[in-house]
Amino acid sequence: MDRAAFYRDPYPHYAAARAAPGLTFAEELDAWLVARYADVREVLSRPDDFSSQGALRPDVLPGPRALAELAGAPGNAPIVLSTDGQAHQRYRRPLTRGLSPTKVAAVLPYVEAAAGGLLASFARARRVEWMSAYARPLPATVIGHLLGLDPAEVPRAIMAGQRAEELLFTPLPEDEQVVAAREVAALRHLLAAHAARSRTADTLTGELVRGLAPDEPTAGQRDEIVANTQNVMLAGHLTTTALIGTAVHRLLRDRRQWELLCARPELIPAAIEEAARFEAPVQGFRRRVTRPLELAGTELAEGETVFVSFGSAGRDEAVYERPDEFDLLRKPERHLSFGHGVHGCPGAFLGREQVRITLELLLRELPGLRLARDDVAMAATLIHRAPEELFLLW
């Protein structure tokens, strides 16, 4: 099977790996697949044994011309996602401050206004492609606001962030690689200029600047600020987009679930958690084994790679009854879709709140919402599992 087909529907492979003894080596991932809930939780609880270096290893290595375009741009530095120990704590602290419940609560009126404006822009049409009209724009607008970016710059910045993902995870012709690399380089220069004027700002960028460069930043600190700002911009956008897309898709795919939620809106928090369990927005990350050890009965050598599958953990039959069914009334069980331990997602609360606001808005304004088509294709990526397109009627 090719990698794209694996990415579009990884669940049969997850199920086979959970049923097999020990770990299964997945050729498509070039890694040992950690598929059972207990094993995923164990790996995430042992960062000294399973390093985050290379957590987001690219599927594609850009060519020399594309790399040359990036060479002169700031931002060639480690990020919170792929570091361990004190370095990880240093990168994470300003994100934790900038995405604290207090900070998120303060931005919720902005989120509500932005969500309402997006819905109003297409409500009269009675038909919409949900992902492009709402699920992508809302998180992009919100993360741009939190970073303190000029609203006019946000669409271009988000598009360039997506180009960065394409450059590393989608095979592109050489000339298109170069174009994408130029857009990414321009984004990094934009973020560097924005950071330079954000030291005193009460924004997420300001937190990163003050946290990573308490004094006048060195060239290396500037690279760190740009790299981590770009990372949080992309992560804060894509994962929430995926969760908004999944929640609406799964609620409407089984009409009984949508009608239940309309009748009992107090189930919205359960809908959010069930959507996250059922389709983990990020399906998983890699970890590098730091010493010879045994996991689930499989001997692993130092330097080997495991893929820690949040998506598989959410479908583990040993933890969840009927794991392949989407059920609002499911007995609450903790899931691992936002990670666990020191690398748990710092923006999980913000993402959940955006989905909550979205579902409340839809129940109030568009209770007759339904799928226009049943043939919904999932994006060929494990970074943000979401429908490529989702056509809705009301």
From TrEMBL:
- PANTHER family, alphabetically? BIOTIN BIOSYNTHESIS CYTOCHROME P450 (PTHR46696:SF4), P450, PUTATIVE (EUROFUNG)-RELATED (PTHR46696)
Key words, A-Z: Heme, Iron, Metal-binding, Monooxygenase, Oxidoreductase
**Which protein are we looking at?**
Cytochrome P450
Pfam families from the entry?
p450 (PF00067)
Keyword field contains Heme: yes
List the Gene3D superfamilies hit by this protein, alphabetically: Cytochrome P450
The UniProt family comment states: Belongs to the cytochrome P450 family.
Does the record bear Iron-sulfur in its keywords?
A: no
